[in-house]
Structure formats: C-alpha cells, structure tokens
Design goal:
By secondary structure, the protein is α/β, with parallel strands linked by helices. 41% of the residues lie in helices and 14% in strands. The protein is built from 9 helices and 9 strands.
Length: 263
C-alpha cells in the first residue's frame, strides 16, 4: 500500500468478508483504493455475445466509456465479462455428448467463455487497458491503465462474483450489473403475468427471489453466491439493461435511470 494511505473501516470490513469466503486477498501489492473514482461493471455475456459478438454494441459502449474517461481524468473502470452465447452453446454440447456431465466441468467451460469475451473487450479498450485480463481477482495484479478487464475465475459462481471481489479489493461501493433485463421483477415475468418490475429491493428480499444455490448457466439477475457476498459486505448493486446506453450514461452521471437498486 502506498506510504501514508489509510484504509477506511468500511474497506477493512469488506476484506474480512473476503478473508472468510475466499481465503483472503493478496494485499501485499501496491494498489490504489480510491472509492469514488473506480466504477465496477459486470458486463453480461448476453450483451457482449448473445449468439455471436454484437459489434454494434461494443462500438457504442467503447464510445460512451471513452467519452467518460476523457471528461474526467480521475475516472477508472473495471469491466468483468460474462460468457454469453458461447458459454451456453459449449456447455450444452458437453452435456449432450456426456449425458449430462458434471457441473464442475460445465462451469470450467463457462469460465473459459468469459475469458474469450474478456480478451475481446480488453482489445477493444487497449488504448486505456495496458494490463492483461484478470482471471484471479484475489491474486497479484496491476492496474496501470484506466480500464481493467476481468473474466471468470473458477467453478462455483458466475463472473458476477468476480465483480464483487474486485469491488471489495478496489474499494468501490457499487457494482453496475448490465444484462439483457431492464429491471428485477417480483417473479419471472416469462411465467407469471402478474410479475411487477421493481425500482429498488432489499438484499434479504432479493436473496429470497434468487435462492442460494449456483448452477452453471443459471439465469438470475445477479448470481446467488455474489448476492450473498455483496449483501454481507454492504455493497449496492444496480441492475439495468446493458444495451440501453443512454440509460447507462444516466447511471454514470448520477442522473435518474431505469433499473433496480439492490441493497
């Protein structure tokens, strides 16, 4: 840690949560923990590569982030990519060939899909991202640029959980979760016509909605394992439609937006 830098009690509390849940974070490497300057975005694979890569979205997303970085010299971003269409397709092929297979193997396939997407996103932001893709959010890493890109780590949870870990590590109090849904609903709107969108929900109520168990390919607004960690650490999560970039601009600029605030 840089000489003279003081960690806040809130940051220390979050590290204690991480110590219990994930075996500890490597904090021996000097990193900047400036809460207000780092924005963590869980970038759902469903918006990067729903079936194939959405080049139009990536171009527009890069333009928006580029504008934000040039407007504020102190701003930095961490993007954590999901697996999207490639993860579902390759996991489905594995399960079909192997008669179901195991969740651990399916999870590893999903992890590798997130890394492919992350490498693409890192290349798109190469002007701002000189560091390699992060594949272990608890290990040694550098953040020399103004964008850092991360991918899945290991089986047992989705890349949402990696976003939570990086928020803990870098002192961010919010994770912006961008996916193919605009808001969290009271129930699955695909099966319940009475389901209502929510602008805000508490962590206990949200965790009752999504349950506590993770399975590879599970489709929830935010991973149950990540939800537990975020809840215990006091993080806030904003769920919003990833492809609605004017709405994302509103989130980044602190203006009204359509989405669900959890916590």
């Amino acid at each position: 840690m840089p000489t003279g830098q003081v960690r806040s009690p809130w940051f220390i509390f979050k590290c204690k949560i991480a110590e219990r849940e994930w075996g500890g974070l490597d904090l021996t490497h000097p990193l900047e923990y400036t809460e207000s300057m780092i924005t963590v975005i869980s970038l759902g694979g469903s918006i990067v590569a729903p079936d194939r890569v959405d080049e139009g979205f990536l171009g527009d997303f890069r333009a928006l982030i580029d504008e934000a970085l040039r407007a504020d010299a102190g701003r930095r971003f961490i993007f954590v990519t999901g697996g999207g269409g490639p993860a579902r397709a390759w996991q489905g092929a594995y399960r079909a060939v192997c008669g179901g297979g195991t969740d651990a193997e399916a999870d590893w396939i999903g992890v590798m899909a997130t890394r492919l997407n992350a490498q693409l996103v890192r290349a798109v932001f190469s002007e701002w991202c000189p560091d390699p893709v992060v594949t272990d959010p608890t290990g040694p890493l550098s953040f020399e640029g103004r964008v850092l890109v991360a991918a899945g780590w290991k089986p047992g949870f989705s890349s949402d959980n990696d976003a939570v870990l990086l928020a803990l590590r870098f002192g961010a109090d919010t994770v912006i979760n961008l996916s193919n849904i605009a808001q969290v609903y009271t129930a699955d709107p695909r099966v319940d016509p009475n389901a209502r969108p929510l602008s805000a929900i508490s962590w206990p109520d949200f965790r009752r909605l999504v349950g506590s168990e993770w399975a590879p390919g599970k489709n929830t607004p935010f991973d149950p394992v990540a939800s537990k960690a975020a809840s215990e650490a006091g993080l806030r999560v904003i769920c919003a439609a990833g492809k609605d970039l004017p709405n994302l601009r509103g989130i980044l600029e602190g203006r009204p937006f359509v989405g669900t605030v959890i916590g």
